[in-house]
């Protein structure tokens, strides 16, 4: 594949994102006001609870099977490494640039979570469709590309909505607790945010100065407390998108479920097609929201230029270089197989810009929405160049 061909393949998806972002920015200006602050909040919740889980369920159920999942076992580890390495570099960045506390979660989130779904679903199959593609024949390459991209999207979503979501949430809560009111409340009563909080049970004085708890009430409240604690912990660890990804993997891997739900002759195929129809709305909606948040950031942003440049350097230089080392080491020990397209995808996962869902997280926690959008804007603007250059290098390394 020539440089100009690769440039077009890498440039088109990024330009689409930038154009839709511009539409979201236009819709949020005061004279139009179709995508104001409240509207963006409502849309974020719809994306979080409906669009994203539906998209993951439909894509994974259709493309992932037990055989392909066993073959691709290294990809979940690779995605986890991208998040861990990215968050570590982000932590170093906020220390070097002395990023304000309320913006630290946005910086670390953008360094940690990459766009492992939308871009791969567009770019990887497009690479296979090129007439001079270096990856086997077109039919096999396209089938494998869709499976690789779908699994990447699932694992990336689970990491983003569990690991990165928790990081952004922790920083948002930490910043909120800086106020004296919340600090005094936290000192006077147990935190409802803790998975191990102690729930008070009814008690009475037995006349000797000791408090007694009725056994029946104690047993009942212990059960309720345990159930509530489990539910709260699960809600914090597994966001709706992560649950949707797990459900899609189960449907794809379990053959009886797959036969009932997936395929032209499946009796319940309408459920899968309905989920796919709903999920298709996620990509344009979250991109429009990013444009709306960008307008807020352009009006008033506290994000320093060194922090923005640092995130750009982490995602466009440091992570891709480290990704080459990780994949090469895995290849040396025979952990990634002989498929050159698979190794290309593993390297590509380190070179993508930040996940747009980081903007959704910032919106949900009302912390650094505009600044996050500015980081996303510049990283996506520069991705047209960086993805092209890195893709060319990755292809030369794996073929």
Automatic annotation (TrEMBL):
UniProt topology in membrane: Multi-pass membrane protein
Protein name: PIN-LIKES 1
Pfam families registered for this protein in UniProt: Mem_trans
The organism's place on the tree of life at top rank: Eukaryota
GO biological process terms, semicolon-separated: auxin-activated signaling pathway; endoplasmic reticulum to cytosol auxin transport
One GO CC term on file: endoplasmic reticulum membrane
Biological role: Involved in cellular auxin homeostasis by regulating auxin metabolism. Regulates intracellular auxin accumulation at the endoplasmic reticulum and thus auxin availability for nuclear auxin signaling.
Localization: Endoplasmic reticulum membrane
Membership in a protein family: Belongs to the auxin efflux carrier (TC 2.A.69.2) family.
Annotated keywords: Auxin signaling pathway, Endoplasmic reticulum, Membrane, Transmembrane, Transmembrane helix, Transport
Segments passing through the bilayer: 6-29, 41-61, 73-94, 106-127, 147-168, 237-257, 277-295, 307-327, 347-365, 377-398
